[in-house]
Amino acid sequence: MKRSLFTAFAALFVAGSIFAGGIVTNTNQSAMYTRLGNRAATLGIDAVYYNPAGLTKLGTGFHFSVNSQTIGQTRTINSDYEYLNNGEYVGEVFAPVYPGVYAVFNLGKLSFSAGFNPVGGGGSALYSNGLPSFEYSPATLVPALASQGATAYSLGTEFDGSSIFYGIQGNIGYEINDMISVAIGARYVIATETYNGYLKNIMLTMGGADLPASTVMNGIGQQYEAAEPDAALAAAMLDGAIQMGVINATDPVPDGATKDGLTQLGLYQEGMTNEQAIAAFGTVPALAQRYYATATLLEDQTVKAEKNATGITPIVSVNIQPIEMLNIAVKYEHLTKIEFTNTTTSDVTVGLQPDGTPITMFPNDAKTRLDMPSLLAVGVTLRPIEKLLLAGGFTSYMDKGAVWGTEENNRTEQLSGNSWDMGIGAEYSLSEKFLVSAGYSMTKSGATPEYQTDLSHSLSTLGGSFGIAWNILPKLQLNLGGQIVAYEDASRTFTSDFGIGNTSVTEDYKRSVWVAAIGINYSLSAGN
Q1: How far apart are CA 264 and CA 237, in angstroms?
Q2: Residue 161: inside a domain, yes or no?
Q3: Domain containing 343 — which CATH number?
Q4: Per-residue pLDDT tens for 400-431?
Q5: Which residues of the chain carry a pLDDT beneath 50?
Q6: Residues 6+ apart with CB under 8 A from 235
């Protein structure tokens, strides 16, 4: 078996924002964002995250905001590998509470602010019937052992994973003059990923009877082990005949006992020479060990592992308001180095070293990187009339400068370029109490087909936002928002040796997302 049953198990959820932003970074961080689709140049309280320099415009006093989004995502993966029982795999990602908490104390020219957000990850996903990469090897057992009576396979598999990158952010802003404000800040990132799953009850239907696949592999290994003396004798006899000149090394194997023996061992190939037959007989001991090793990989296995990391993100921003109706914001977040360390309770064996030492998926204390890339965000708001606010923004993520995996095996090298997102929105005041808003947003991923896998893939998006704000009291506002997001389909075609020769396989990746959000803003301020 040349392909592990758990290949790339660790890659699921390592990368992937739960909705808006780059491949790793979340930018959907408030109910106001959910209903508008863009907040890059906001002067509201969620500027703690989006535009810290703009907080000096918020009004003197204390401001507080609590937000939560509920996010549901469906991931559908289809594989055309002909030996799979069912080529469709569906995973449900759900984040019932996705918080955003902000606090600002504004002295006019000087502002102090703090925020708490899931800046990456944020959901858990359940694949109740596993994924194609879990099933390719068991499925391949059927054609590989067809000559020995294999007609079908079955297995039990499930995977549940979660990823969350919490950010605790603090900023200090200063108003240089009526036009320009600046801010510096930092975010402390606490990242945790968990993996729980199993692959068990792998069965093969052999001659109408269902047998554990590991039992079948052990049985074949025993057959090869028992055949080792006869194989060695046959090789020696062939070699002796060649040395005595009775036969030629390059002549085809003649009909008879030698060909029959090779055929029974599954080693005969049409046109095989005597010299090749000697080499084939010599592989019998290795074949016995190969089947024994495969039997180990086909036994019931479970994984329970956790990965933890921390990092710090320096943040600088500038807010420019040349005239009262126009506001421009620029924010730069530096790269955040995130290095995970494994804490493993139970692990899965994915292979064996030459000396028989198991190779596991989550070695305890092993380290991997998943940096949050630096980003540059630019936003503009325009208020052409008192009741109407127009907003737009663009964010570029410097993915190519990050490390995802290890420096020796960095997945960002498989990107065609950096990812980006943009959004536009409009907000209209119906009255002093109510306003409505809507927006459009999109993200563009730099992922190439080579980057995509069933376990970790990145898709570009198009999204629509809508919602309302209700000024319950002069200092108390309720925000309600919703978003529907459509993902662009992606696919990859790869050629792999599953043990039956090179096979071309195409996988298709599809997703859809819905978001519902609620937020409360409270202000102890006499300002605007």
Answers
A1: 18
A2: yes
A3: 2.40.160.60
A4: 999 998 888 899 999 999 999 999 999 999 99
A5: 1-15, 527-528
A6: 277, 278, 281, 282
